[in-house]
Amino acid sequence: MTDARTDILAGLRRSLGRGGGTATETAARKAAESAVDAWIYGHERHLIPDRSKLPPDQQVALFVRMATEQAASVVRVQSEAGVPSAIAEFLKAHNLPPSVKVAPQPVLEALDWSSEPLLEVAFGGAVASDRVSVTGAFAAVAESGTLMLVSGGDSPTALNFLPENHVVVLRADQVVGPYEDAWDRIRAAYGPGTLPRTVNFITGPSRTADIEQTIQLGAHGPRRLHIILVEEDARRGQSDGA
Q1: CB 160 within 8 A of CB 135
Q2: Pair 242, 174: CB distance under 8 Å
Q3: CATH homologous superfamily for 50-235?
């Protein structure tokens, strides 16, 4: 039995180019490794929809239209100073309590929350009792109205999925055309060969049509997705996820 097992494993290693014994096997293994590296780091672009090949301001308009078509709500504010009041308005519009759990991202922590004295603000990860979360986004993809969010110490992933209401603060300069441009920004921000532990793509609120082919919102995550689009900082050229 032991000899048979050894023979089988040896055959598998040879077929995968991992035998390592002969010069031919070593060359085959190195060729396979080179091919894998070329595929991983080549970043070949796939078919890109023409609708995303637009100037930046038109990409923002396309993102708003596509996100709205996917049942997200979008409000524009001129500067970050308008974010707290925009959040308060969202809560009032949906008869929600004036309490939010906010991602501990520096840009969000630096907002003037005192401008809305009735708003209760706590920073940290989400718990079951949280009804509204507020996060930043790393980027937004115009071609499909999709948000790109990354995990990290200042961006707990549970905030994206646990509360039934998710508010995302997005700068206009974080909007790109196709998905490929969003991945380029991640590679530039994190460095070669490095990615965040988790990258989430979110398009509209959670939904399902499993039951009688009827759309139900909030099936596997937030039932509302509200995007606050900040216009003023569009020329900063940053994409730090806040």
Answers
A1: yes
A2: no
A3: NagB/RpiA/CoA transferase-like (3.40.50.10420)
d(CA 171, CA 65): 16
pLDDT at 149 over 70: yes
**Per DSSP, what are the bridge partners of residue 217?**
207
In the chain, what are the domain boundaries? 2-42, 50-235
Burial of 162 per CB tally in 10 Å (0-12, 13-18, 19+): buried
Nearest Cα to Cα of residue 181 among 146, 152, 227: 146
CB distance 165 to 100 below 8 Å: no
Per-residue model confidence as pLDDT tens digits over 18-69: 655 567 767 777 888 788 777 777 777 888 888 889 999 999 999 999 999 9
Model confidence band, residue 191 (pLDDT cutoffs 50, 70, 90): confident
CA-to-CA distance for 90 and 119, rounded, in angstroms? 12
Q: 29 forms bridges with which residues in the sheet?
A: none
